[in-house]
Amino acid sequence: MRRIILIGYMGSGKTTVGKALSKQTGMMFYDLDWYIESRMRCSVSQLFKERGEEAFRKIEYNMLHEVAEFEDVIISCGGGTPCFFDNMDYLNQQGDVVYLKATPEVLYKHLLMAKVERPLLAGKTPDELIEYITSHLQQRAPFYEKARYTLDVSVLDNYDKIKISVERIMALLSL
Q: What is the mean pLDDT of residues 51-65?
């Protein structure tokens, strides 16, 4: 029984790496945000708008405790998941937690390329966005750094580099 849990800031590639790792290992992949959306029948953005961040974090906490009980899985957490309640301690108890680490500049580029609507980034200018990412990452880094493993993913801009990141994770975890 194994659980691999990927954490990191939004845009760090948790879903991309998680899917690739799942394909390589044959383990089931769960993106926590997708799991929440399927269970709640509502998008994360909509939950944020309708209920606010505090209510969303409570839902996220409950859904995390469901999915983190599954066996032989790879879980991609939302960027804020480790930063609320006792989630980071819980994650470390449940499996092998890997922090996908990237610089604010790389995260900014990844987020600009992504077509996904991010509730916390809506309506920000490019300057406001890089400033927000930088300060937000500083706030969240102490939680992320509690992960047992850290992988620098500053260069996930093509499939070969994603493959290399998957290989590094497999080596870190002796898979």
A: 96
